[in-house]
Amino acid sequence: MNIYPNGRDHVSASTAHLSAQVLEQLAEGSLPPARASDAATHIQACERCFAELEGYKTLFTMLERLPRFAPSAAFSDAVMARVQIAAQESWLAALIRRLMPTTRRGWALIGFVITAPATPVLALIAWLITQPLLTPSTLWQFGMIRAQSAAQAAFAWAAERTVGAGFGTWAEGSYSLLQSLPLGAVGAAVALLAIAMPVSAWGLIHLMRTPAKSVNYAK
Amino acid sequence: MQPGSRLNALDLIHSTDHELVTFARTGGEKAYRELLDRYQRPVFSLVYRMVRDRELAEDLAQETFVKVFNHLESYNPKYKFSSWIFKIASNLAIDVLRKKSLETVSLDGSRNARTGEEIESSRISVASEDANPEELLEAKQLGAEIESAIGQLRAEYRTAILLRHVEGRPYEEIAEIMEVPLGTVKTYIHRARTELRETLSHLRVQT
Fold first, then answer.
1. Domains (ranges, CATH) in chain B?
2. pLDDT tens digits for B154-176?
3. What is d(CA B3, CA B22) in angstroms, rounded to the nearest whole number?
4. Cβ pair B51, B57 in contact under 8 A
5. Quick check: A3 and B205 CB within 8 A?
6. Residue B49: how many CB atoms within 10 A of its CB?
7. Which residues of A touch B194 (CB under 8 A)?
8. Which residue of B lies nearest to A98 if distances are taken between CA atoms?
């Protein structure tokens, strides 16, 4: 079919014919259904518009049939030779990266998850402190006594099961040593640990998120 | 697809461009290769039809991929990966055309071509592999006429018409690629079609 089946005539400027834009949209199927229906009715009765429409369809078919060219066989390798690829991320680092929030809303959610369970505990402590018979020092002593008895029970339980291996004797000695330490020193050690643990965890996460070394494909 | 996990070829083939970019960012070389496989022909074809010089087109296509792959961190997932890569490719091609004044090319090939050999090598050849000799010759002649007509279009019209009809991109994406308003894209494509119909009016084609 000829691009211009009726010669090189353009669509008439007369309003009796469909405009080039409408014909193009009709040919590529992008004309809204209501207008497409009106246009189709007109085309059935108008030889010129029908010919124009066929001309557009033919052009579109020819363009769509144009092949895609392939670059040379060495193309991929030539590209990859110039690309800097980061070292493969470990599964643990990828998991942590995925879990880390990336938006404000995510950080807010994490903050809520962390602070929500701590809030009732803090409220309880605050309430206890406000009681007239309870002072911070009596609370601290109470906590330490409870912690010591829990530790004693745990050591006794562990010693019972490890006496045969000699570990029980070592643990008993260590526990006696701990008991001989002043209460303030134990508290300071616990506080130090409480600070050091999240700091070291943050450092570890930071290290895992940073690619160790880039791989350079350039020769 | 989970970034950092071991992927087989099937996973990669079924991954979206966005997933491949995420995996490539974490050091997945296979993801780069898959993106390269997906886009090397479309990008090379676009650039080749723009500059009509195979060697130059190959350099520009290579430059496009290197730019994209080395700046994956700056990729904005709000936009399509295809828009991003076509934008870089078309900008590079248009820059070269402007610098070398190649906008209007000779019917036989690159305007830069001086010797017969250069003209021959810059001519875009189109041939179907499953046609008989007569059909092959006809298809080749027809293909050459269309390529030549495309080559006579203004660079902007050429980019728009190739993205629309060869790559099948929607108008909105073409506007994004060319960084022009949607109305401008529609005008470019309309004018390109009109010019192509004029240039190809002597042809008789079986649909």
1. 1-103 (1.10.1740.10)
2. 999 999 999 999 999 999 999 99
3. 7
4. yes
5. yes
6. 23
7. 20
8. B3
